[in-house]
Amino acid sequence: MKTGNITLRLKSFFSTAITLLSHLPTPHRVVLGCASLILLVSLTVSDNSSAVAVAPGQFRSNLAIDLQESDAPDAAEGIANSSAPLKDPDPEISYVVQKGDTLSTIFDFLHISQPTLYKLMEADLNVLALDTIQPGHQLGFNFDSEGALAQFIFRSGLTYKVVFDRGEKGDFEYEEFIEKGGYRREIISGTVEGDLPRSMKRAGARIAEAYQVTSLLKERMNFRSHLRAGDRFELAVSRQYVNDEYTGNSIIEGFVYDGVIRKQSAFLFDGSYFDADGESLEKAFQRIPLQRKYRISSSFNPKRKHPVTGLIRPHNGTDFSVPIGTPVLAAGDGVVSRVIKHRYAGLYIEIQHNQKYKTRYLHLSKAYVRKGQKVSRGQKIAASGNSGRSTGAHLHYELRVHDRPVNAMTAPIPVVQTIASKKRNLFKQQVAELKSQMAEQLALAKKQ
Ligand SMILES: [Zn+2]
Fold first, then answer.
1. Distance from C-alpha of 365 to C-alpha of 348, rounded to nearest angstrom
2. Within this chain, do residues 346 and 399 fall inside the same structural domain, yes or no?
3. Distance, CA of 29 to CA of 102 (rounded, Å)
4. Is 28 within a domain?
5. 398 CA to middle of ligand 1, Å?
6. Out of 83-97, 211-225, 238-252, which region has the weakest mean confidence (pLDDT)?
7. N or C, which end of the chain has less CB nearby within 10 Å?
8. How far is the centre of ligand 1, averaged over its atoms, from the C-alpha of 354 (Å)?
9. Is the pLDDT score of 116 beyond 60?
10. What is the distance in A from the centroid of ligand 1 to the CA of 369?
11. Does residue 290 belong to any structural domain of this protein?
12. Which residue in 265, 270, 236, 241 sits closest to 251, CA to CA?
């Protein structure tokens, strides 16, 4: 009889608990006393709650349901029906890991043999879930008619579960369950008082969500000098829930900052973030430092014959055939490291983008920036020209990676994410939808 064996196990569990109680210092007695109390309560009261409801460090048995099964069949069915995918019938013994626990101490406490634990760890080799048990993880134990461990359930958070089932030969097989959960969009609006993360938190955002937002906009905004008390912000965030409980996963869908000094926005589209105008927020390079494509009159070529001298001279850049006065744009964010008039290169600008990348723009007619100036991607830095040794009006553009010239047209660089023109309307629709939801939220907040 199954029930009888479990009762035996529980009897031994109680005697262990009582023995331990008499030997342990007071704080532990209190905890174990609670554990025993919970067990007693659940033995006498039919308990409909799931394994999740067990407090850390407390064992709970669902034996009461077994004993009363014939009395209340409807209730038992009710439990089964209301169970979500990750919530199976309560295991015979449930336990929530608490600080200081190891699998060994927990298994010892339940009189489960060490060889059984080793078999379990063997099965865990391909999952590696059990070597990192942490406070809050939930464990479930089911036993066979001989009282041996037949099933072990490991659950971390609301979305992850591994079930280990013992096979005929005593080895365990495992199955992983990952709950996708549903995402719900929430709109949060508020005003700045103090720093942005704390202002967002006060308005109902989670601090991790707030930090995600500041990291998204860090290239566009200075979160000290651009903030003013009373500035408004709206956040659209999708949060993951399983059985109405937040799993800890959030996706920032949109953020609008409406400040006295700065107005900024960020919208998720196709896996990347853009401002409301569809400009990428991700730090990247433009492939071409011009407003549109022009004919390439001479490509990057390490073995080129120089068109004027006829000598073999590598051509370390790409020449674009552009009329004098064409706007030249910074290929990426950076600091101007040179503005020089050179005998052959003519007037040229060099930008240091970070440790890795430098770009150079040669034969210019006018420079709009000074050495040491900060520039951002797409910023107009010069007008093209025909200065220095040049065979005609053109822009010579060079990209250097760790100070080595590379072909700027083909080199693997962080290229700007742009929204394809056929997806542009979809993006605009999405932004409009989020903005109208934000406006609704704002109107609601003003009424209150
Ligand atoms: Zn050139």
1. 9
2. yes
3. 19
4. yes
5. 8
6. 83-97
7. C
8. 24
9. yes
10. 21
11. no
12. 236
Query: 431 or 25: which carries more pLDDT confidence?
Result: 431
Per-residue pLDDT, averaged over 171-189, amounts to 86
Residue 28 domain boundaries: 2-178
Tell me how far the alpha carbon of residue 282 lies from the centroid of ligand 1, in angstroms: 29
Task: State the average pLDDT over residues 70-80.
Answer: 31
Flag whether 411 is in a domain: no
Tell me which residue of 254, 144, 154 sits closest to 209, measured CA to CA. 254
> Residue 240's CB: how many other CB atoms inside 10 A?
19
Q: Confidence class of residue 61 from pLDDT cuts 50, 70 and 90?
A: low
Q: Do residues 123 and 29 share a domain?
A: yes
Residues 228 and 93 reside in one and the same domain:
no
Co-location of 114 and 262 in the same domain: no
pLDDT of 317-361, one tens digit each? 999 999 999 999 999 988 999 998 888 889 999 999 866 789 999
Q: What is the pLDDT of residue 431?
A: 95
Residue 348 alpha carbon to ligand 1 centre in Å: 12
Cα–Cα distance between 243 and 263 in angstroms, integer? 38
Count the domains in the chain: 3
Q: Of 130, 148, 178, which one is at a domain's C-terminal end? A: 178
* Tokens read off for 197: 């993360």
Residue 236, token pair as written in the block: 């659209």
Mean pLDDT of 28-52: 34
Hey, how many other C-beta atoms are within 10 angstroms of the C-beta on 295?
Answer: 9
Question: pLDDT tens-digit profile of 218-233?
Answer: 878 888 899 999 999 9
pLDDT category of residue 282 using cuts at 50, 70 and 90: confident
Residues with CB under 5 A from ligand 1 (ion): 317, 319, 396
Within a domain: 448: yes
Residues 102 and 242 in one domain: no
* Domain co-membership, 248 together with 317: no
Please give the C-alpha separations between residue 225 and each of 72, 200, 354, 376, in angstroms, as whole numbers: 66, 17, 23, 18
Dist. CA 326 → ligand 1 center (Å): 16
pLDDT at 111: 92
351/397 same-domain check: yes
Q: What's the 3-state SS for 139-196?
A: EEEEECCCCCEEEEEEEECCCEEEEEEECCCCCEEEEEEECCCEEEEEEEEEECCCCH
Residues 6 and 154 in one domain: yes
- Rounded to 10°, the helix 196-203/207-216 angle is 140
